[in-house]
Structures are given as C-alpha cells and as structure tokens.
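Predict structure. Chain length: 445.
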Amino acid sequence: MKKKLLATLLAVSMVMSLCACGQGKEGEKTETTETTETSDATEAKAGVVSTKDYNPDDYVTVGDYEGVEVTVDVVNFTDADVEKSFNEEVEYYVDYAGLYEYEATDKEVVEEGDIVNIDYVGKKDGVAFDGGTAQGHHLEIGSGSFIDGFEDGLIGKKVGETTTLNLTFPEEYHSEELAGAAVTFDVTIHSIDTGKMPEITDELIVQMELGFDSIAAYKEDIRSYLQESCEETNESERKAKVWNAVYDLCTIKEPPQEMVDDIVATIKQNAASYADYYGVGLDEFVTNYMGYTMEEYEEECKQEAIQSAKQKLTVAAVAKKVGIELTDDEVKKTAEAEYEGYGYESADALLNGMGKGAYYDYLLSDKVYEYLETCVTIKENAPVSILADEEELDEEEISDEEDGEVIVLDEEDVEVIEGEELEEEDLEEELEEDPTEELILQTEE
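Prediction complete.
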C-alpha cells in the first residue's frame, strides 16, 4: 500500500493521467545508464518540465503493439446490489442519526456489550467543556467510541447510579484545550437497552436528513452512483491494461534528470499539501500516515519519479511515431473548458497550479490512449459486482482502524489518531473535498 500511496500523490497532480496508471514492471527491458543523484527537488516548481522539451526517440524504442491481445476485468451491478447498498446505508445512517428504536430491559448491572442510555457531563478544572455533554445518549460498552477508561468505567455500575470518571485525553487529541488534559465525566445510567432497526419508510428517510424525500429517491441515487462507478472503474481498467501491454513492449533508457527532479518535486509538493491538510508536519505525515521512514520516502520518491518519467517519454514516443500532435492552442482551449471542474478560477490558474508541462503530458496521454485502444484486441472477463471490490476495501479500512485509537469529544466527533494509514481512495476523494472541513475517518453515534 505504501507504493500505491506514493503513486497517488503523483497521480492527483497529473489529474490521474494515463502516465500514472502503469506501475514499474518486472522484467522491464530497460537499457541502464547512470543517473546522477536527485537534486533538492523540493525547491523546484513542480510540473514545469514536459516531454515536448525532449526528443523521445533518444530514450524510447517503441515495440510492435499492433493486434496485441488485452484481457480486462469488468464490473457491473444488479437490482440486488442496489437493495444491498440501500439497506446497508440506511442502517449506517440510522445508527449515526440516533434513530434506532430502543427499549429498556430489566437488566440492572452494566456488562461488556451492553447498550446503555446515559447522561454525561465532561469537566476540565471543574468547568464543563464544549462538546462534552449529552443527554439520553446510547453507548455500546466495548465499542471503543469514547476515550480510554470511559466505557470500562461503567462496567459493573448499576442502572440509576451516577458515577464520576477521572480520565485523561490523549496527548495527540486534536483540541489543544483538551490534548493530554485531566478531566472528569459525571455519568448517569438510565437503563440498559436493546436496539433494533425501525421500519424503513419514507418518513424515516426524511428523518435521516440526507436530502431524499422517499425510499424511491434514495434508491435511484444509489443506482446512479453505482452506474457511474462502474463506468469509471471499467474505463480505468481498460486504460491501465491497454497502456501496460504497449509499455511492456518498449525499450526505455534512463530518463533525463531534470524530468525526474520535476516529478519528485510534484510528489513532495502534494505530500506537503496533505500534511498541511491534516495539520501535521511533513515528517509526521510521511512516518505516521504513509508508513515510511524519511530515508525510504526519499528513495521511493526518486524511484516513482523515474518510472513516471519513463512512461511519459513512452507516451511521447508513441505520439511521435504515429503523428499525434498537441498544440499550445489545444492545451489552452482544453484548460478553458476544464478549469472550473478542477476548482480553479481560470485556465491560467489551472495551468500555473498544475504545471503547464504536467498538463501538456496529461492531455497528450489521453490522445495516445484513444489511438492505442484502436490498435489492440480487447477481451473482457465475465463481469463481477462492483460491490465485491468495495467489500475488499472495507476490510482493509477496518484492519487499519483496528490499529488506531478511537477517541470521542461528543457523539458526532470521532477520529482515529494513532496507527492510521491513508488508503489511495482516501487521498483521491479528500482532494476533491473542502480542505477546511475536518476529516472524520470513523463515525459513531
């Protein structure tokens, strides 16, 4: 996953260009030439260097790819997938919004796994702090939703009892006021309850406050999402497989150092941006979020940049061989058509922000791919449900979260703060969101 994360830091800057799709391959036919040590690329302006600054024939010998057979995986969805997604989402949001139907039991003493109905007031230095108070809150004991000691402190307590918990917030807690602070929680246990899903009705859907006024509207939104996801996944799969098949047939020399340095600068620039987004320094982001040592990070940046430069040059070599051209006027017109979609105020802002060289290579790769798709034979495997991939991702995310520490300030503010690793999808999706909003990796009621 480390390799994927580093590639993603590169890919987002290239707008997920074709060049970023292929990875380094085993048995690559590469003529080795010595490359000097990477310069301090963090001081370079990323995305400036382009393949049009070089003669790609000096670096790449294009193989014979005409008629090459490519087998691609295909995903789809069914009505049953829509129903499955709908039921899972409704259950999640019912839990999140506190819409479960609870019924008090006759049980008197709290045990692990019980759902307790509690009031609590959190205090620091005897004064209630913001977000630390709730009434009628349902908490599953052992869920790990609250800071260490809160849930364990209720085990063995009786219904009707009020207890004071003396706890300490983690040193890494995101609130400076509470990080590492000694606090108390006065907790009153009203009952030990059982919870069940309410009947799913149009009224319940409205109560969830997701913007849907009926079951039918919610399901239609899920259907549209699955359709779009299938189309995007299948397109990406075709691009990657076609490109890799052609790339495997090429002989590639070591790329020019200037190009490598420029791509390293792109990766580091994106890593620094994400570090800022998460409110940490670059060293902490690299070690705690990406899982590298700084020495490993530097080396992987270099190796990833070399691979990307080779792919860019291969794209340019194919373009030159078959006469595909991209003029400055085309680049400018495309930027004018796309800048709003990428959140820029103008075409010039897009070109400056992404880098004119990187944007040129991105557009050229699209042109080359469109051509290559007509040159190879594409065979499709039997379709599988797109939800199968999502289930595998969910398992990976759960595995990562189990290594973390889950803490809570109030019932809507939960995050994993230790042992956390970012998934490739996290980086891509979060790039599109408002960076001023706090990322919540896990949410409990």
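Summary: The chain has two domains: 2-76+225-386, 80-207.
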